[in-house]
């Protein structure tokens, strides 16, 4: 990830993603949101629950391989490998940052 020069909140997210829901939630603003698999999760408790639920369903690793910036949004392509249908896959993570934390994250194929 160092080669991609990702902003600190995004680096923190990918590091936390390998751990647990609480670590992931700490990367977000209190009113932050995640959109994944067609559902939106808003607030730290909902983000923590989303990550815990995802970790219960799948074991995976996500390795950022490309980053692009468009205004306030960072688009990170990540190679995701795990025990889920369609693995491996490259997913697109769209991060919007505010006040040194993640304000929104949308994950799509």
Defining key terms:
109 residues; alpha+beta; Nuclear Transport Factor 2, Chain: A; 6-stranded mixed beta sheet; 3 helices
**Count of helical stretches:** 3
**Overall structural domain count:** 1
Distance between the termini: 20 Å
Return the string of H and E elements. Answer: HHEEHEEEE
Radius of gyration: 13 Å
Strand order of the largest sheet: 2-1-6-5-4-3
The stretches of 5 or more residues where confidence is low (pLDDT under 50) are none
Classification by helices and strands: alpha+beta
Assigned CATH architecture: Roll
Level-1 CATH class name? Alpha Beta
Helix content: 25-40%
Mean pLDDT: 94
Shape: globular
Strand segment count? 6
Q: What profile does the largest beta sheet have?
A: 6 strands, mixed
Share of residues in strands: over 45%
- CATH topology title: Nuclear Transport Factor 2, Chain: A
Topology:
Elements (H helix, E strand, L loop, with lengths): L7 H10 L3 H5 L2 E9 L2 E4 L1 H14 L2 E11 L2 E10 L6 E10 L2 E8 L1
Parallel strand pairs: 1-6
Antiparallel strand pairs: 1-2, 3-4, 4-5, 5-6
If you had to describe this structure to a student in words, what would you say it looks like?
- This protein is an alpha+beta fold and 109 residues long.
- It has a single domain (2-108), classed as Nuclear Transport Factor 2, Chain: A (Roll).
- 27% of the residues lie in helices and 48% in strands.
- The chain has three helices and six strands; from the N terminus they run ααββαββββ.
- The chain has helices at residues 8-17, 21-25, 44-57, and strands at residues 28-36, 39-42, 60-70, 73-82, 89-98, 101-108.
- A six-stranded mixed sheet has the order 2-1-6-5-4-3, with helices on one face.
- A hairpin with a 6-residue loop joins strand 4 and strand 5 (89-98).
- The radius of gyration is 13 Å and the shape is globular.
- The mean pLDDT is 94.
